[in-house]
């Protein structure tokens, strides 16, 4: 794992981050001088649950999963993050914060990091950043609440349909009426995300495929053949 400043990078990672979108070029250059940049390989942990946390992690390029271990010792995936997303914002607003999740690289991933001290100075100089952080935090909390409610109440097929649409929105590329999705998770991880076994998700995928809703290409690609059909499924 290498660490370096991205001040002299050809394209500073701050330009790719939505929370810094309203800043001037001079502000972005100043922030770039503060940022440390790390590279993680696929499967490598960025932070583990319970570890001290005083850093905002911003994904410059790659995919990261946030997860917790259930009391039964199973992984529950909470979020799948990609370019421009970030995590660790709670550590910016609270001192002595410890991570309440694990974060793992799903592929080779480049991360930009800002310490609490630097973020406090940035938010003092640019209050808009605080507002953007809070808006993002609110969306993430709402997602977690919806996930908990979904796991507790919804039929597994509906949960899987919701996950397909979420992956489509985040990772899909439209080709005519179809959407091609490069899946960021393995079958086992997809099953963990919706709270079912690997066998169950494979069986449900086969059912969706037989119904003409999706087409699977190996283990890492899915074609959403009938997006409207999957959305109707969600409402059933």
From TrEMBL:
Pfam families membership: cNMP_binding (PF00027), HTH_Crp_2 (PF13545)
Domain Cyclic nucleotide-binding: 19-140
Keywords, sorted A to Z: Activator, DNA-binding, Transcription, Transcription regulation
Top-level taxon: Bacteria
Molecular-function GO terms, alphabetical: DNA binding; DNA-binding transcription factor activity
Any single GO CC term annotated in Swiss-Prot or TrEMBL for this entry: cytosol
Domain HTH crp-type: 154-228
UniProt xrefs under InterPro entries: cNMP-bd_dom, cNMP-bd_dom_sf, Env_Response_Regulators, HTH_CRP, RmlC-like_jellyroll, Tscrpt_reg_HTH_Crp-type_CS, WH-like_DNA-bd_sf, WH_DNA-bd_sf
Tagged with keyword Transcription: yes
Record flagged with keyword Transcription regulation: yes
PANTHER family according to UniProt: CRP FAMILY TRANSCRIPTIONAL REGULATORY PROTEIN, LISTERIOLYSIN REGULATORY PROTEIN
Protein name: cAMP-binding protein
